[in-house]
Each structure stands twice: as structure tokens, then as C-alpha cells.
Amino acid sequence: MFELPKLNYAYDALEPYMDAETVEIHYSKHHQGYTDKFNAAIAEFPEIEALPLEDIFKKLNTFEIPEASRKAIQNNGGGYINHKLFWESIGPEKEIDEQLVSDIKETFGSVDKFKEEFTKAATTQFGSGWAWLVRDESNNLKVYSLPNQESPLTLGHTPIFNLDVWEHAYYLKYQNRRPEFIENWWKILKFI
To answer: What is the rounded distance in angstroms from the CA atom of residue 67 to the CA atom of residue 130?
Structure first.
């Protein structure tokens, strides 16, 4: 059974960029809901339940299971693992990853150009989804968005960090102002 990962900061620790009420509802209701439904989806498949979390997604399309079960695992498990990375990637204090910053500059030309590309992926994701920074199968950095709760792991990519652009991530504070939410998210992203 997978448990809701511990949030390593108080609900109000991301103020003023992310309000306490949004963090609490997002974490304790949305993420908890995905956690519970993910556990229910894999409970009938002990061979899947026994795998490490990332392997479930890397191998998701190889399991011989009913399509409805695969979709439940993808949607709820994706909600579980995507949110896990999301909470781990943000915080009240920066923890700059100098190697990542160097790789970003090498790949995108500058941190500002990277931020522009990532912001565009997040802003233009139609409907619900996520913006991602990943390493592809050749260890190259890539930026893209995916709809709903899809995971880069199913594409053979390794997620570095993500941004939740589902409305539940920002609507209480920002209403329909997704670009403003994204702009402020950079201030709580730990790594750059």
C-alpha cells in the first residue's frame, strides 16, 4: 500500500505565492484521493502492487490487465506520483541544484530561456495537466506538457520536476489566472 507522502512544510509555508487553503485542500483532499484510489486500483494485481512505484509506470503498458484497470492505475497512480514530485519540488526555501542549473544553461542557452519554454508548456497545456522537466532516454533535458495524470515514466523519461496546472492547484487564489500562478510558482520551486 502506498501512503500519502509527508508534506515537509506547513500549509502556510508557501505564502504569499500559494495560499494555505489551496495547499491544504490540494494535499489532504486531492492527493489523498489519488492515493486511496491508486491503492484500490492495484489491490487486485499483487504482481503490480509489489513493484517499486516508478516501475509500475515504466511497465504500465506491458501489463496484461483489463483496459479499465490500466486506465484506473494510470489516472490515480499518475495523480499519486505526479503530486508526490510536485510537493517535493517546491518549498519555502531554495535548494539550488548547481549541476541542474548548468545542464539547463547548456541545453536551453540560459535559465531565462528555459523558464520561457517551461512557462509556455505550462500556460498552453489545454485543460488539466502538467508541465514537465525531464531527462529523456539519452539523458537530454526536455520540456513538455502532458494532459491529465499522464506520467513521463510511461514514455521512458525520468521526471526532474513538474508543475500542476489543474485548476485545483491554483483556483482559490488565482481563479482563471493560470499565467500569474505559474509566474509565482517559480518563486517556490526549490532547484533553480
So the answer is: 23
